[in-house]
TrEMBL record:
Residues 7-66 form the HTH iclR-type domain. The keyword Magnesium does not apply. Keywords: DNA-binding, Transcription, Transcription regulation. This is IclR family transcriptional regulator. It comes from Streptomyces sindenensis. Pfam families: HTH_IclR, IclR_C. Residues 67-236 form the IclR-ED domain. Transmembrane segments: none annotated. PROSITE patterns: HTH_ICLR, ICLR_ED. The keyword Transcription applies. InterPro entries: GAF-like_dom_sf, HTH_MetabolicPath_Reg, Tscrpt_reg_IclR_C, Tscrpt_reg_IclR_N, WH-like_DNA-bd_sf, WH_DNA-bd_sf.
């Protein structure tokens, strides 16, 4: 991504944000990576944190803030979220598992909506929360139908292979165990927009003891059917 808009302060802010796309970073690392002076980097980071474009992790490192995820939700439009408000709770109640909708935003997966069955706060994921596209069934679905060049770049840091994504394309869904915790199983299917492009991923997750270590065998079709309903929009 370029950082030469002609507006100096925006270019510096963009450069700083790009460092955090790969994960948390200390002020020292931001300075070393961007070449910004420490006072400039600190001033920009404080301003971006005030705007909720940055926040801090438990170690005090800077991370991308919740406002970025919220903007991704807003930019996606209302049609899919209108359907999700009905379809996600229905699927949750049917399977008694957590159901979430994710969208790709750069090299992150952003939670657009959720219907939680779990009462464990550690298993809950807030709307707008963002995670790397490096592991798990959601990342696999959001990347499986990408163009070859983008797919090649994504696989350089992913913990799954091109063969894994070929299997996702063949079946129409992905599964993983341990994505949200050692005892959690997940199965995910693509939501498509006009023209068949994958625009989101619908994910079902729950305890391995109930969903099994091969959740796709039992729930793949169920999740895929719900994803197709979401693809059709509010009038499905």
């Amino acid at each position: 991504m370029g950082h030469d808009s002609g507006v100096g302060v925006l270019d510096k802010a963009s450069l700083l944000l790009s460092v955090l796309e790969t994960g948390p970073a200390s002020l020292r690392r931001i300075v070393a990576t961007t070449g910004l002076t420490r006072p400039t980097a600190h001033r920009l980071a404080m301003a971006l944190e005030h705007l909720r474009l940055l926040t801090r992790d438990t170690r005090g490192r800077f991370v991308l803030g919740p406002r970025l995820g919220e903007m991704a939700v807003e930019a996606h439009g209302d049609w899919m979220l209108t359907s999700a408000a009905v379809i996600l709770p229905e699927l949750r109640d049917r399977v008694r598992a957590d159901v979430r909708l994710f969208r790709r935003h750069g090299d992150r997966q952003v939670c657009l909506a959720g219907a939680e069955a779990s009462t464990d706060p550690a298993q809950r994921i807030a709307t707008g929360a963002a995670f790397p596209l490096t592991a798990g069934s959601v990342a696999q679905v959001l990347l499986a139908w990408e163009e070859p060049v983008q797919l090649y770049e994504a696989l350089r840091t992913a913990r799954f292979s091109a063969a894994t994504l070929a299997g996702v394309r063949r079946r129409g869904w992905a599964q993983s165990v341990g994505e949200w915790g050692a005892g959690t199983a997940t199965v995910t299917a693509p939501v498509r927009g006009p023209g068949g492009q994958v625009v989101a991923a619908l994910s079902l997750s729950g305890p391995v003891g109930r969903l099994s270590r091969e959740p796709g065998r039992e729930y793949g079709t169920v999740v895929l059917d719900a994803a197709i309903q979401l693809s059709a929009g509010p009038n499905a």
